[in-house]
Protein backbone atom coordinates (compact mmCIF):
# COMPACT_ATOMS: atom_id res chain seq x y z
CA UNK A 1 0.00 0.00 0.00
CA UNK A 2 2.86 2.37 0.88
CA UNK A 3 4.52 1.66 -2.50
CA UNK A 4 1.25 2.42 -4.28
CA UNK A 5 0.92 5.75 -2.45
CA UNK A 6 4.52 6.63 -3.31
CA UNK A 7 3.96 5.78 -7.00
CA UNK A 8 0.71 7.75 -7.13
CA UNK A 9 2.40 10.68 -5.37
CA UNK A 10 5.21 10.55 -7.92
CA UNK A 11 2.73 10.50 -10.81
CA UNK A 12 0.84 13.47 -9.36
CA UNK A 13 4.10 15.40 -8.97
CA UNK A 14 5.14 14.57 -12.56
CA UNK A 15 1.73 15.62 -13.90
CA UNK A 16 1.90 18.90 -11.95
CA UNK A 17 5.30 19.69 -13.42
CA UNK A 18 4.13 18.80 -16.95
CA UNK A 19 1.01 21.00 -16.75
CA UNK A 20 2.26 23.93 -14.70
CA UNK A 21 6.03 23.84 -14.79
CA UNK A 22 6.01 23.94 -10.97
CA UNK A 23 7.31 21.03 -8.91
CA UNK A 24 4.89 19.72 -6.28
CA UNK A 25 6.15 17.63 -3.39
CA UNK A 26 3.66 14.97 -2.32
CA UNK A 27 2.68 15.07 1.34
CA UNK A 28 4.33 12.37 3.44
CA UNK A 29 2.12 9.50 4.54
CA UNK A 30 0.53 10.20 7.93
CA UNK A 31 1.73 8.01 10.76
CA UNK A 32 -1.00 6.06 12.47
CA UNK A 33 -1.98 7.49 15.83
CA UNK A 34 -1.85 5.10 18.75
CA UNK A 35 -5.02 5.69 20.78
CA UNK A 36 -4.50 6.93 24.34
CA UNK A 37 -6.80 6.36 27.32
CA UNK A 38 -7.36 8.72 30.23
CA UNK A 39 -9.28 8.37 33.46
CA UNK A 40 -11.55 11.27 34.26
CA UNK A 41 -13.45 12.05 37.43
CA UNK A 42 -16.22 14.46 38.30
CA UNK A 43 -17.81 15.82 41.46
CA UNK A 44 -19.08 12.32 42.35
CA UNK A 45 -15.54 10.89 42.41
CA UNK A 46 -16.55 8.06 40.06
CA UNK A 47 -13.91 7.29 37.42
CA UNK A 48 -14.80 7.32 33.72
CA UNK A 49 -12.35 6.42 30.93
CA UNK A 50 -12.08 8.28 27.64
CA UNK A 51 -10.28 7.19 24.50
CA UNK A 52 -8.51 9.80 22.38
CA UNK A 53 -7.57 9.10 18.76
CA UNK A 54 -6.33 12.52 17.64
CA UNK A 55 -2.65 13.22 18.35
CA UNK A 56 -3.27 16.91 19.07
CA UNK A 57 -5.92 16.03 21.65
CA UNK A 58 -3.68 13.35 23.15
CA UNK A 59 -0.90 15.92 23.49
CA UNK A 60 -3.35 18.41 25.00
CA UNK A 61 -4.55 15.84 27.56
CA UNK A 62 -0.97 15.06 28.54
CA UNK A 63 -0.24 18.78 28.89
CA UNK A 64 -3.29 19.16 31.15
CA UNK A 65 -2.01 16.33 33.33
CA UNK A 66 1.40 18.03 33.49
CA UNK A 67 -0.25 21.28 34.61
CA UNK A 68 0.37 23.04 31.30
CA UNK A 69 -3.09 22.76 29.76
CA UNK A 70 -4.24 26.34 30.13
CA UNK A 71 -7.87 26.95 31.07
CA UNK A 72 -9.53 24.31 28.88
CA UNK A 73 -9.32 21.31 31.20
CA UNK A 74 -12.85 19.83 31.26
CA UNK A 75 -14.07 17.28 28.69
CA UNK A 76 -16.90 17.55 26.19
CA UNK A 77 -18.07 14.88 23.78
CA UNK A 78 -20.92 12.93 22.24
CA UNK A 79 -22.24 10.09 24.39
CA UNK A 80 -22.82 6.92 22.40
CA UNK A 81 -25.34 4.40 23.81
CA UNK A 82 -22.99 1.42 23.76
CA UNK A 83 -20.65 0.17 26.43
CA UNK A 84 -16.93 0.24 25.72
CA UNK A 85 -14.61 -2.49 27.01
CA UNK A 86 -12.19 0.14 28.33
CA UNK A 87 -14.90 1.77 30.45
CA UNK A 88 -16.56 -0.93 32.57
CA UNK A 89 -19.62 -0.07 34.62
CA UNK A 90 -21.06 2.39 32.11
CA UNK A 91 -23.67 1.68 29.45
CA UNK A 92 -22.30 4.42 27.20
CA UNK A 93 -18.99 5.89 26.08
CA UNK A 94 -17.88 9.18 24.59
CA UNK A 95 -17.20 9.05 20.87
CA UNK A 96 -13.38 9.34 20.71
CA UNK A 97 -13.44 11.58 17.63
CA UNK A 98 -15.85 14.03 19.30
CA UNK A 99 -13.97 14.62 22.55
CA UNK A 100 -12.53 18.04 23.16
CA UNK A 101 -11.57 20.17 26.14
CA UNK A 102 -13.34 23.28 27.42
CA UNK A 103 -13.07 25.93 30.10
CA UNK A 104 -16.74 26.91 30.43
CA UNK A 105 -19.81 25.52 28.69
CA UNK A 106 -23.57 25.76 28.69
CA UNK A 107 -25.44 24.21 31.59
CA UNK A 108 -27.63 22.46 29.00
CA UNK A 109 -25.05 19.70 28.55
CA UNK A 110 -23.69 19.66 32.11
CA UNK A 111 -24.12 16.36 33.95
CA UNK A 112 -22.12 13.78 35.84
CA UNK A 113 -21.02 10.47 34.37
CA UNK A 114 -23.21 8.56 36.84
CA UNK A 115 -26.29 10.72 36.17
CA UNK A 116 -26.00 10.13 32.44
CA UNK A 117 -25.51 6.39 33.00
CA UNK A 118 -28.72 6.28 35.07
CA UNK A 119 -30.63 8.42 32.57
CA UNK A 120 -29.62 6.33 29.57
CA UNK A 121 -30.32 3.09 31.44
CA UNK A 122 -33.81 4.23 32.43
CA UNK A 123 -34.70 5.43 28.96
CA UNK A 124 -33.31 2.44 27.09
CA UNK A 125 -30.41 4.35 25.55
CA UNK A 126 -30.38 7.43 23.35
CA UNK A 127 -33.39 6.18 21.40
CA UNK A 128 -35.48 6.80 24.52
CA UNK A 129 -34.44 10.45 24.42
CA UNK A 130 -35.93 11.06 20.96
CA UNK A 131 -39.24 12.29 22.37
CA UNK A 132 -37.52 14.48 24.96
CA UNK A 133 -35.12 16.33 22.69
CA UNK A 134 -36.12 19.29 20.56
CA UNK A 135 -35.21 19.15 16.89
CA UNK A 136 -36.44 17.94 13.57
CA UNK A 137 -38.62 14.83 13.64
CA UNK A 138 -37.22 11.76 11.95
CA UNK A 139 -33.55 12.70 12.31
CA UNK A 140 -31.48 10.00 13.98
CA UNK A 141 -29.61 10.99 17.11
CA UNK A 142 -25.93 10.25 16.67
CA UNK A 143 -25.03 11.09 20.23
CA UNK A 144 -25.93 13.25 23.17
CA UNK A 145 -23.61 16.19 23.81
CA UNK A 146 -22.29 16.05 27.35
CA UNK A 147 -20.00 18.53 29.08
CA UNK A 148 -19.49 17.69 32.75
CA UNK A 149 -18.35 21.01 34.23
CA UNK A 150 -16.67 19.24 37.15
CA UNK A 151 -14.78 16.76 34.95
CA UNK A 152 -11.07 16.49 35.70
CA UNK A 153 -8.41 14.41 33.98
CA UNK A 154 -6.82 12.13 36.54
CA UNK A 155 -4.23 10.04 34.70
CA UNK A 156 -3.27 8.34 31.47
CA UNK A 157 -4.22 4.69 31.82
CA UNK A 158 -3.80 1.35 30.11
CA UNK A 159 -7.09 0.29 28.48
CA UNK A 160 -7.04 -3.26 29.87
Question: Topology, please?
Answer:
Blueprint: H1 2-20, E1 36-41, E2 48-52, H2 55-65, E3 74-80, E4 93-94, E5 100-102, H3 113-123, E6 144-146, E7 152-157
Antiparallel strand pairs: 1-2, 1-7, 3-4, 3-5, 3-6
Main β sheet profile: 4 strands, antiparallel
Query: Structural class from helices and strands?
Result: alpha+beta
- Beta fraction of the residues? 15-25%
Q: What is the rounded Rg? A: 21 Å
How many beta-strand segments?
Answer: 7
Domain module tally? 2
Give the % helix.
25-40%
Number of helices: 3
On the 0-100 scale, what is the average pLDDT? 74
Distance between the termini: 31 Å
What is the approximate shape?
Answer: globular
Order of SSEs? HEEHEEEHEE
Q: In terms of per-residue confidence, which ranges show pLDDT below 50 for 5 or more consecutive residues?
A: 1-28, 125-141
How would you describe this structure in keywords?
20% strand; 3 helices; four-stranded antiparallel beta sheet; three-stranded antiparallel beta sheet; alpha+beta; 160 residues
Description:
The chain is α+β, with helices and mostly antiparallel strands and 160 residues long. The chain has two domains: 1-30; 33-157, no CATH class. Helix content is 26%, strand content 20%. The protein contains three helices and seven strands. The protein has helices spanning 2-20, 55-65, 113-123, and strands at residues 36-41, 48-52, 74-80, 93-94, 100-102, 144-146, 152-157. The strands form two sheets. Strands 3, 4, 5 and 6 form a four-stranded antiparallel sheet that branches. The longest helix is centred in the N-terminal third of the chain and has 19 residues, at 2-20. Residues 1-28 and 125-141 have low confidence and may be disordered.
Amino acid sequence: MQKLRTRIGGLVAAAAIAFTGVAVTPAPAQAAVVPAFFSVSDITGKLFVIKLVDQLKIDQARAILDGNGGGATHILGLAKPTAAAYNPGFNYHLDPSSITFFQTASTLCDTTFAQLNTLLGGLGGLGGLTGLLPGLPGLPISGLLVCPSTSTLIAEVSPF
